[in-house]
Amino acid sequence: MNHVSWTSILIGLALFLFGIDYLSLSLQELSPTRLKNLLAKCTSSTFKAILIGCFITCIIQSSSATTALTISLINANLMTFSQSIGIIMGANIGTTITAFIVGFDLFQYASFFLIIGAFCLLFSNHPKIKGLAQILFGLGCLFYGLELMSMHLEAITKLPEFMKLVTLFTNHPILAMLGGAITTALIQSSSAIIAIVQQMYHLKAISLYVSIPYILGCNIGTTITAFLSALKTNFSAKKAAFFHFLFNVIGTTFFMIFLTPFYHFFLTFRFYIPISPRLQLAFIHGFFNIVTTLLIFPFYKHIITLIESCFKKNC
């Protein structure tokens, strides 16, 4: 039986999570005031707010951070619930950037990012060089963590228990979706879980048919951060957190209903456009969030009315 180094896998996961968090904080430190001003002021139209939400999330590498920041702005009366809708939808599109970073197989550069970033942090006091060094170091941790996980995840695929679990997920895609939601809620990072799914799919440990519902579930699980952020906030902020949850539930339900045609569509896509397995799942993640936004956008005013009426009944 193959030996599985769970310690190495957990160290890899910890490095990946630290890399995302450190990269996010480093990018926010470059200009936190501008980020807040963009989120607070550039919401004159929902379409513009979607673009801003997408742009900010691409920069800070975390839809949870964008949503939490939006909730804090609502709580401070710097933004209304209706203004936040576009930003939350855009944040869901912007969060796919991490999956694309993983998809482009940049792991071989992890050690270079770590070494250059560490040395620049140690020996340079120039603010711009130090800021760039922090970003490189964050990327290095992210890539090295993924590489470490990848090295030891392969052993898991040989375990009989794992094969039984995969068979169960194959027979019941809803269980795969629930697995994605639960693991993401526990770790509070959809990027980390999706990266693991990308690795497992790359290793041919799981099929595309299992990977899709698991990624869909991750989108529901990631909403836990918004709920935690909104626990001690006003009702407008709580409504924004609920919309974030509703957005992902509606999108996931839609794609689960049409899972088989969706799966066959990507089989055809994969046949005509041969790209790496990791990049395939990055495109699926991006496709899900873009289509869900297009699906909800025409009805967002009705959803706002529904949420507001629900909260009035509970007041």
Written description of the protein model:
This protein is mainly α and 315 residues long. The chain has helices at residues 6-30, 32-41, 46-60, 63-75, 81-94, 97-103, 110-123, 127-156, 160-171, 173-187, 190-202, 208-221, 224-229, 235-257, 259-272, 277-296, 300-314. The protein has 17 helices and no strands.
Summarize the helix and strand pattern as letters.
Answer: HHHHHHHHHHHHHHHHH
In the predicted model, the low-confidence regions spanning at least 5 consecutive residues are none
The shape, in one word, is globular
Give the end-to-end Cα distance, rounded to a whole number of Å. Answer: 58 Å
Please give the largest β-sheet.
Answer: none
Give keywords.
315 residues, mainly alpha, 17 helices, 83% helix, globular
Short summary of the structure?
The protein has 315 residues and is mainly α.
Topology:
Layout (H helix, E strand, L loop, with lengths): L5 H25 L1 H10 L4 H15 L2 H13 L5 H14 L2 H7 L6 H14 L3 H30 L3 H12 L1 H15 L2 H13 L5 H14 L2 H6 L5 H23 L1 H14 L4 H20 L3 H15 L1
